[in-house]
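Many introductory courses stop at the sequence. We go one step further.
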Amino acid sequence: MLVRERIDRRRARAWALQVHYGWESGGGVGSLRDALGTVVGSRYVSPRRLPYVRRLLCLLDEHISEVDVLLGEVLENWRLERLAVIDRGVLRLAAVELLHVDDVPPKVTIQEGIRLAEQYGGPDSPRFVNGVLDALYKRAQPGS
């Protein structure tokens, strides 16, 4: 994979997180696709990044119930709805990528989730995100 493509995917994930944050802050009304349309109507998103932003958000729209259930199963002593909006968004986006995007290695997905948590979350977010995504990955393995 080209370095440019990795950078574009990294930035696409950050855009997807921003869209998710806006959508959740607005009460989760409508779809994430609708929220993306609103963002693209008012902000410039690079055409190179937009397909991956759209892919992640469409997958999350389609699988959010499944993702939330699976995250709920691996969260220890936490409930998904009690998490900070940013942490919940990072976990949801990374989880949907981990579970439904075959062309990104799981370790890359987990590392990128940690990076988002470092950039946008609180001081404990990276370690928390790492633990949850690692547990989700292990649980999703055949024979687990």
